Amino acid sequence: MSVPRGAVHAKWIVGKVIGTKMQKTAKVRVTRLVLDPYLLKFFNKRKTYFAHDPLQQCVVGDIVLLKALPERRSKHVKHELAEIVFKGTGLLGPQRPRGQLVKIPLRAQSGSQERRPLQPPGQTRDQQPVQAPVSQCQT
Amino acid sequence: GPLTGRYLSQGDVVFKSSVKVMTVNYNTAGELSEGARKFVFFNIPQIQYKNPWVQIMLFRNMTPSPFLRFYLDNGEQVLVDVEDKTNKEITEHVKKILGKSKEMLEKEEREKKKLSHPANFGPKKYNLRECMCEIEGQVPCPAFVPLPKEMRGKYKAAMKNEA
């Protein structure tokens, strides 16, 4: 049931592109500062908008200016890409350096020290009772 | 500090209706960005409080020099360089170029006042007073102080029947 709708409330918005997996559409996250009524502090409130991007020139992480379309393009798309303010890298986060897997040995190769032969249980090495260290207090 | 209702309402930058988005690019370190940082910490809450429908976005450490950018309704963009300026200078400049003038604000207040008549009685949301009994010097509300005998309907009806 299509209800005749008026113009979109937000005419111009600036947001960050979070997804480009749709054809000719970019998913844009817009943050606005909203005042918490008790704490009296402004917090960022997020909202996602879909924007029409005919040339598919948006990459994830772009900061983008959107313009409201005169009429809705589809059920969710009400804006179009006006301008890319800052270009993003297209990477979702810090990437670890990728390369061939290298096998690292568990213990470092120590050629100078020889391995001690294992002692049978019940026999201490030095054959002396272990004495607890006595702290000497100065009186 | 910037977390009081009184401080927020003391802001005097009210944007013209054509301003839709405000973007602040600044750096978290560096002497030249100091004014911008103070502007973001002290003045942006005041501006957002007075202009709840303007989208304000903050970008940190993206460009070497700090600047403000306003996106207007007609597609125009206003770039304001903020490097090496104190936060007071920045607010004054922004008020001068994109803020409503004092006369306009006063005119709007007068228009607002015209809508509600202070002498009307009614719900607290739309009027100042709800009933005549609230005013000092008038007959108090019979819910709190019982009316004298002569004013009660029972007595008046009895007197009428007698006569």
Automatic annotation (TrEMBL), chain A:
Where is this gene product found?
Mitochondrion
GO CC entries: mitochondrial inner membrane; mitochondrial small ribosomal subunit
Gene Ontology MF, one: structural constituent of ribosome
Q: Which GO terms describe its biological process?
A: mitochondrial translation
**Where is the sequence biased in composition, kind Polar residues?**
121-139
UniProt similarity note:
Belongs to the universal ribosomal protein uS17 family.
Listed name of the protein: Small ribosomal subunit protein uS17m
* Species of origin: Cyanistes caeruleus (Eurasian blue tit)
From TrEMBL, chain B:
Its domain of life reads Eukaryota
A Pfam entry, by short name: L51_S25_CI-B8
Q: Where in the cell is it found?
A: Mitochondrion
List, alphabetically, the GO terms of the cellular component aspect. Answer: mitochondrial inner membrane; ribonucleoprotein complex; ribosome
Stretches assigned to the Ribosomal protein/NADH dehydrogenase domain: 28-101
The entry's family comment says: Belongs to the mitochondrion-specific ribosomal protein mS25 family.
Main localisation, per the record?
mitochondrion
Q: What GO MF annotations does this protein's record show?
A: structural constituent of ribosome
Record keywords, A-Z = Mitochondrion, Ribonucleoprotein, Ribosomal protein
Q: What is this protein called?
A: Small ribosomal subunit protein mS25
Where does the chain cross the membrane? Answer: none
Q: Which residues form a coiled coil?
A: none
Q: Which SUPFAM superfamilies match?
A: Thioredoxin-like
PANTHER family registered for this protein in UniProt = MITOCHONDRIAL RIBOSOMAL PROTEIN S25, SMALL RIBOSOMAL SUBUNIT PROTEIN MS25
